[in-house]
Amino acid sequence: MDGEEIDDFMLMALESSYDKEASTAFKYDDEDIDDEVDGGVDTLLAASEKVLAVNRGLVDPDERDSLRFRKIYGPDKLLKERIDMDADKVMRNTVRRISRTGNLSSINPGHFNSYSEKLITGNPLSLALEEINPMHLTEQARRVSQMGPGGLPSSTSITEDAQNLHPSEFMFLSSIEGPESERIGVDTRIAWGAKMGSDGNIYQRFRNKRTGKYEWLSAKDLENKIVALPD
User: Fold this and answer.
1) How does 84-94 read in b/e, with b if 16+ C-beta sit within 10 Å?
2) Which are the contacts of 129, defined by CB distance < 8 A and separation ≥ 6?
3) Using CA atoms, how far apart are residues 58 and 26, in angstroms rounded to an integer?
4) What is the pLDDT of residue 42?
5) Which of 82, 163, 179, 201 lies at a 20 to 30 A Cα distance from 188?
6) Residue 28 CB contacts under 8 Å (≥ 6 apart), including other chains
């Protein structure tokens, strides 16, 4: 993976993403690189088919806590989502006002600032830093959380499985950093050396024993591969 495809990050939101898998009972199309779920009829049918197959014991259920089923959304993605969904109906009200007056006099500098301002000041994912300890700034720069909008609404929604370490997080998420509270495991930090890709996946550098070259791989890339610690 090229370095240009790696985005810098400050505050990330961790969100689950359903990954389609092929099985002997039915086939899923997993050729979509973006892995986006559109929520249409095909998605509902595929989800229903998967649930029935799991209930009948034809396939194993997905590991929802596996890192390969999750994506990270940084501030840029969250801001894009607010604009696309027209948060607070800013665009809708603006269009109505322009249609009523017939001119653009109602649009002032900073007219659309609420898209970004409320993402920072009104979002529980935003955290005011004390800026006393420089190491605290470094730690918070690597923070990822499953809490907040689009994730877990409160601490009562956190399951024991979500708090536990999952093998897929090895080398991608830190196992020793995080809050000492009920949010342990869901409010964690990016591992040192790992980077976030523009596709929402976390990438870590691994050495290919066959070629002797280093490669940037995600948790999904490591599926069915053997990972060993260096001597």
Assistant:
1) eeebeebeeeb
2) 136, 137, 140
3) 10
4) 84
5) 82
6) 20, 21, 22, 46
Residue 39, pLDDT score: 61
Give the span between the Cα atoms of 144 and 127, in whole angstroms. Answer: 12
Selection from 29, 9, 11, 12 nearest residue 20 by Cα: 29
- The residues near 75 (Cβ < 8 Å, ≥ 6 apart) are 10, 11, 119
Domain ranges for the chain, please list them: 3-16+42-74+131-217
Question: Per-10-residue mean pLDDT for the chain, 231 residues long?
Answer: 40 39 36 53 87 89 83 86 87 88 84 84 76 82 83 81 85 85 86 89 91 91 84 68
Parallel, antiparallel, or unpaired for β 187-189 and 195-197? Answer: unpaired
Give, as one character, the DSSP assignment of residue 79: H
H-helix or E-strand spanning residue 202:
strand 202-207
* Cα-only R_g, the chain: 21
Q: Tokens 């890192």 map to which residue?
A: 67
14/142 Cα distance (integer angstroms): 12
Q: What is the dihedral of CA 122, 162, 129, 74, to 10 degrees?
A: -60
- Asked if residues 172 and 190 have their Cβ atoms less than 8 Å apart, the reply is yes
Locate 57 and state its tokens: 């014991």
